[in-house]
Amino acid sequence: MEICVSLLLGSFAWGQAPTVTARVEFQKSGGLENPTSASNVAMWLTPLNLSAGVADESPRRPRPRLVQRNKHFEPHIIVVPVGSSVEFPNRDPFFHNVFSLFEGKRFDLGLYEAGTTRDVHFDRPGISYIFCNIHPEMSAVVIAVETPYYALSNRRGEVEIKNVTPGRYLLRVWSEASLPDHLRNQAREITISENTSRLGTIRLMQIPVTHAHKNKYGQDYEPPSPSSPAYERRP
Length: 235
Prior knowledge:
Layout: E1 2-9, E2 20-27, E3 42-47, E4 67-69, E5 72-74, E6 77-81, E7 84-89, E8 98-100, E9 107-108, E10 117-122, E11 126-132, E12 139-145, E13 150-152, E14 158-161, E15 167-174, H1 180-185, E16 188-192, E17 198-205
């Protein structure tokens, strides 16, 4: 399967940084009957020259968080600037043990009970795959980038990056359904200016998505036990 990302630069008003928009389109291939969801494709623009510095109008975003609810992380994927602290509130009536030990930021929050929150400081760029050591069905991804210019595609495949200062950038995309080597090969330099109107099309090869993984000890998960302290309901 291929993913087509058609990028358009929004209209540039004098004295105002433009908005870069994108549309993600999934094409049928490989014998699949229907294209998969076009959501959660990350796109970011890293400045390559001083003139493409952060615009004064760069969006102010709420503090990022990955909520643990119904044995899931909400949302499943987030993008944050390097240096951000991400909250991990536990909204389930039992313990969780959030960890990431494979790529990106490595951490282990240990057991913490319902109604409490732990924070993680993402101090380096990279892709962090996050799991729970108790519940194997839980997974999430945090993408830490060295730029304020980033966005995720919505359910309609639309991406919008606001207030991008004109200049030279490195365009990067990421999809959970694509191989890392293939994604690295899609990186390319672009120039954003008041005369730029179309940046082209990016095609990504899709692979089956699996969230199978070992626990934080590198072992298979054991069947849950109702009597385990990790599942104890706390007031």
